[in-house]
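Q: I'm a student working through a structural biology exercise. My instructor gave each of us a protein and asked us to get a predicted structure, then write a short paragraph describing it. Mine is PadR family transcriptional regulator. I'm not confident about reading structure output yet, so if you can add a plain explanation after the tokens, that would really help. Here is the sequence I was given:
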Amino acid sequence: MAYNGGPMTEAMYYVLLALMHPNHGYQLMQAITEVSNGRLKMGPGTLYGVLSRMQKDGLISLAEDDGRRKTYQITEDGEHALRQEFNRLKALILDGKILER
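A: Happy to help. First, here is the predicted structure for PadR family transcriptional regulator. I'll explain a few features afterward.
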């Protein structure tokens, strides 16, 4: 099953953003908080659910598994999907400029 390219959840977006540098679970939770400027604090249950789904969709892959911890990395498809979502969100912001008048 591949990612269908529809709008991403906030969790998916920030996981991909944080995985622009390979990371393992605990580091990844901290990186998500950092890249979201503290707006998103993801617990382990949510994180591992999102990671599992994104791995099945081919957006991320396992970079390393030393038995103690798994390190994940974004795939080429994942980076493409992230850039598409970024452009979609930018378009939403531009469309909303009417509110500034």
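A: Here are two points you could use in your paragraph. The chain has a mean pLDDT of 93. The chain has four helices and three strands. It's a good idea to check both against the output above yourself.
Q: Great, thank you!
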